[in-house]
Design a protein that fits this description.
Elements lengths: L2 E5 L3 E3 L4 E8 L8 E6 L5 E7 L6 E3 L7 E6 L4 E6 L8 E7 L2 E2 L3 E6 L1
Parallel strand pairs: 2-11
Antiparallel strand pairs: 1-3, 3-8, 4-5, 4-9, 5-6, 7-8, 9-10, 9-11
Length: 112
């Protein structure tokens, strides 16, 4: 059974930092591209960042460039999202995704 389990979400102040983790199991983690997707209250899901299986190609939406860093450790079957200089508009549930599968999400709340 494929499982993606996110962790690391929290309530932080404007300008704060967080590191999200996503532990994958039930599939060959290192063979698949992974993404972080977020959903703010009352809005649709927004693809934030993605990384290819080997980590060679990475992309970000413009609003998080220079603030968020995606990475992965295939030996640990774990995906990360380091977030700095957080803004209230980053408030959302953050989901880990690989094609066809989603985690349960972790809440990030940024207070002003």
């Amino acid at each position: 059974e494929v499982q993606l389990v996110e962790s690391g979400g929290d309530l932080v102040q404007l300008g704060g930092s967080l590191r999200l983790s996503c532990a994958g199991s039930g599939f060959t983690f290192g063979n698949y591209g992974m993404s972080w997707v977020r959903q703010a209250p009352g809005k649709g899901r927004e693809w934030v960042s993605g990384i290819t299986a080997g980590g060679w190609t990475i992309w970000y939406i413009d609003s998080v460039k220079d603030r968020f860093t995606i990475s992965r450790d295939n030996a640990k079957n774990t995906l990360y999202l380091q977030m700095i200089s957080l803004k209230p508009e980053d408030t959302a549930v953050y989901y880990c995704n690989t094609p066809g599968f989603w985690g349960q999400g972790t809440q990030v709340t940024v207070s002003s």
